[in-house]
Amino acid sequence: MKGLMKTNMKIKMNVSIAILLALTIVAGCGSKNEGASTITPSPTPTASATTSPTVSPSVGTTPTPSATTSPAATATVKPSSNPVTSPAASPTPTKNGAIQVIAKPESITVLVNKMNSLPSSYEPTDLVYPNIAFTFSEKIDKRKMRQVAATAIEKLFAGAAKDGAPLAGVSAYRSYATQKSLFEAYVKKDGEEKAKTYSAVPGTSEHETGLAIDVTGSNGKCAAADCFGGTKEAIWLEKHAGEYGFIIRYPQGKAAITGYQYEPWHLRYVGADIAKEIQSKNLTMEEYYHTVPVSK
Question: Is 284 within a domain?
Answer without folding.
Answer: yes
